[in-house]
Write a structure and sequence with these properties.
Cofactor: FAD
Keywords: Dioxygenase, FAD, Flavoprotein, Oxidoreductase
Radius of gyration: 22 Å
CATH superfamily of the largest domain: FAD/NAD(P)-binding domain
Number of domains: 3
Strand order of the largest sheet: 5-4-3-9-21
Distance between the termini: 49 Å
Organism: Nocardioides panzhihuensis
CATH architecture of the largest domain: 3-Layer(bba) Sandwich
Number of strands: 28
CATH topology of the largest domain: FAD/NAD(P)-binding domain
Shape: globular
Helix content: 10-25%
EC number: 1.18.1.3
InterPro entries: FAD-oxidoreductase/Apoptosis, FAD/NAD-bd_sf, FAD/NAD-binding_dom, FAD/NAD-linked_Rdtase_dimer_sf, Reductase_C
Strand content: 25-35%
Structural class: alpha/beta
Length: 399
């Protein structure tokens, strides 16, 4: 049985850990709980009928047809780890007074510790006809989109963020025609700043993707998207304008929420028995303050941290944000947290899609990105937050 350090040299047994949400943060927490010696009852509640899986494949390898869909673990693994998996089940209410979670099948689960890893849901702006568009969050969404694309199918993506651009690249790989509608002056402008945003836009344009910037969608009608720039023909419309954290369960129970479930640096909510991790967590970062990150690496790390925190073990939210993407020959890793106004320095061959980008605020490196150059991300992570001579960052003679 796992134990919790009471802070007075004694320990108390922890029984019945319930994990709500069946994404990567949840799986990472379960892996860590068992690895750290917790041998009590462990229940995983997920609203999708599928066992947990990693979401990056949905807009990349699986959608493009490069790879088959893959689960994080098969049924045998959960049986071996003695995890009671309730797939296709939704948690509908959380009662903090009696320590229970009500399910949509009428049953209740008691918990000693609870992890909320409920993720996020696609945003659907109030546009006339939005109900006819697709979104991409689940494997069923990806399957429907993939099955609908044929050679020449014209897919219009509303939103030029990571999902929108990854889908555009996958549509092109499937023989379709991709169109991206972006409200800002450039796709990814708020994430990468103007220099790298222009690079990514040019990359897509070279591959035949049609990009419309500073464009507002006014309505979606059969076969067409009505925009501020005119009519855009469409066989399929995909809305990818971001995701909203799934906080209803927490808010209904009286937990503190904002742009996510508010947690401290150990991922504890305002109730000491309840923790949150992954896309839904508005966590207290030891450097950046309140921070909510919707990326693969963060889900893994926060799942591990939440598990350790539930068991009373050491650890805080102190790592730099990290994400990756694959779009055509643009294959990259990014670490840190830059702002659009930060200075950008490039080292390498941008035209050959092999370079490193650094963002600086004053003399301090705020982020780094390696494109087509591998095994350097750990070095970039070490640079983030340090003051570094710009000549060193751009000097190709430096290893």
């Amino acid at each position: 049985m796992g134990t919790e350090d009471t802070g007075e040299g004694a320990t108390a047994p922890i029984t019945d850990i319930v994990v709500i949400g069946a994404g990567l943060a949840a799986v990472s927490a379960i892996e860590t709980l068992r690895a750290e010696g917790y041998d009590g009852r462990l229940i995983l509640v997920g609203k999708e009928p599928e066992l947990p899986y990693e979401r990056p494949q949905l807009s990349k390898d699986f959608l493009s047809g490069a790879k088959e869909f893959k689960l994080s673990h098969d049924e045998a693994w959960y049986a071996e780890k003695d995890v009671n998996v309730l797939a296709g089940t939704t948690a509908v209410a959380l009662d903090l007074n009696d320590g229970t979670v009500a399910l949509d099948n009428g049953k209740k689960l008691a918990f000693g510790r609870l992890l909320l890893a409920t993720g996020a849901d696609p945003k659907t702006p109030p546009i006339p006809g939005i109900e006819t568009a697709m979104t991409l969050r689940t494997v069923e969404d990806a399957r429907r989109l993939k099955e609908a694309i044929r050679s020449g199918t014209r897919v219009v993506t509303v939103g030029g963020g990571w999902i929108g651009l990854e889908v555009a690249a996958s549509v092109t790989a499937l023989g379709g025609t991709a169109v991206v509608l972006e409200a800002a002056a450039q796709p990814l402008l708020n994430v990468l700043g103007p220099v790298l945003a222009e690079y990514v836009a040019d990359l897509h344009t070279r591959h035949g993707v049609e990009i419309h910037t500073e464009t507002t969608v006014e309505a979606i009608e059969p076969g067409v998207v009505l925009t501020s720039a005119g009519e855009i023909p469409a066989d399929i419309v995909l809305v990818a304008v971001g995701a909203a954290p799934a906080t209803d369960l927490a808010a209904g129970a009286g937990l503190e929420v904002g742009d996510g479930i508010v947690v401290d640096e150990r991922l504890r909510t305002s109730d000491p028995r309840v923790f949150a991790a992954g896309d839904v967590a508005l966590a207290t970062h030891t450097v950046h303050g309140a921070l909510r990150v919707e990326h693969w690496d963060n889900a893994i790390r926060q799942g591990r941290l939440a598990a350790r925190s539930m068991l009373g073990k050491d650890g805080v939210y102190d790592w730099q944000p990290y994400f990756f993407t694959d779009q055509f020959e643009f294959s990259m890793e990014y670490v840190g947290r830059s702002a659009p106004e930060d200075e950008v320095l490039l080292r390498g061959n941008a035209e050959g899609d092999e370079f490193i980008a650094y963002w600086r605020r004053g003399a301090t490196v705020t982020a780094g990105m390696n494109v087509g150059i591998w095994d350097v991300n750990d070095q970039l992570r070490e640079l983030v937050g340090t003051e570094t001579d710009p000549d060193q960052l751009t000097d190709l003679s430096q290893s």
